[in-house]
Amino acid sequence: MVFERAKRIRFSHCDPAGIVFYPRYAELLNEIVEDWFAEGIGIDLRTLVSAHRLGVPVVRLEVDFLSPARLGDRLTFRLVVVAIGGRSIRLTVDAVRGQTACLRAVLTVVLTSLDSFQAVPVDDVWRDRFGAYQAET
Could you give all domains of the chain from N- to C-terminal order, each with its CATH number? Predict the structure, then answer.
């Protein structure tokens, strides 16, 4: 299954040339991951942090910028799970404008205890939730 969300490129995302300033993509990617947790996985980050005392920091981020996105563009972000490890989840997020690929990102997030700030195992409950979005191999 693919988690998909459309985002309008706003003035605040752009540099003086009117294209997305590359650090803003990191913020947009974080929004997509937050939306995926809330709407796809079924737990928002506020609850994950406050009730479960878990965080999901990004420990690795690779981005290929494929085509510029401009002010006013509507990008569709598509998130899939590539791999579920013992303590981490690898995701890909593609951003497209119509049929044009603008960005491809690979993120590794780690399930982390907010009490110890140590990685914790991805148990069967989380594995099942994340697995629903795992790419077919």
Answer: 3-131 (3.10.129.10)
